[in-house]
Fold:
Amino acid sequence: MTKTFYSLIVLLLLAMAGQAQLVSQFTWDTNPVTKAAYGPDATASGGMTATSTSGGAAGTNGLNPNSHDVGMTMAGSTFTSMQGIDISVDFMRKENGASFFSLGGFDFGIATGSIYIKYVLKVGGSDVTRTQNAQYGPPTDNAFHTFRFVFNNNTGVATLSVDGVTVKTYATEAAGTVLSWTGAGTATIAGGLDGSGSNIAVLDNLIIQYPPTLLPLNLLSFDAAAAGGAGNKLGWTTASESGVKEFVVERSADGVTYFPIGVVAAGGGVYSFVDGAPGPVNFYRLKMVDIDGAFSYSPVKKVGGAAGVSLSCYPNPVVDYVNVKVGGSGAAKYMISSLDGKILQSGIIHGGQASLNVAGAPKGMMIVRVENEVFKVFKQ
Structure:
């Protein structure tokens, strides 16, 4: 259940950035390990003994090579329509060489103790291979870390991130440059992965999807303020509006759950909207939608309510404990919820700070709310 919830949150976050599309996912929660959580199943290689065992990421099951190379395969045609790629995996380093996923000229894994990525691009009508070796040395700390590589064909930018933090940004290609899958045949998952005989789960949560699309829009400003008896007035300006359809104005009473209160058609670059029936406290954001249905959100603006407390949370991402620091030394009510509004815990913070145990919370984005202030924290 934890991984299912985490996957839904990941997809929701990516959709908020512009509708990413899932292609393949393996969580290895149960046997057989060739069974996909999404997309086509894989096929076991000859002699493969891999199994699903406890000890995976976030306390769930993971892929245990069982002291033998994994190397399960699947049809490459599942992926060859992808012009860009967003691939992530949880990996516990027990060996210095293995491939997480490979297909044709694309390969993502670890070699000589460092993460590497190789991918092929169509540049000027020709295939050009980009090889990024020795990019990051995963720690040998008996813990899972999330490795994510994104080549966004919309922008031409490729990045490698570790545990949600970007560690490498590669030379930017021209926007619109696409991956090439020339000669791609069979895809391989966990090629050469054997855990060095450790007989424990060392791989988890393989997710492959299209990178999020970007709106052809530049939001220059967005403001909201009380307008006396007329309600609250919102205003925003834009540039580069090619392909933009409309702006959906959304309002929230708590900064977590939003509802649409109006739609403004795109065109002109200067916009205004009046909320004639605001509440005591109002959080506003714009959902900016293009003609293809892709969308993104503006920053949030608050109108009304008390001045609010200052709020900070760390570390971010968080594993077991999140430290919450609140301005002032008095008692303050707090609540932690998931993006779908489910309350995970609540209570009172005394003395201006607290260390809250969130080890049992599902992976994904959490909302920490103290009084009328909110803070987003990603749970690993």
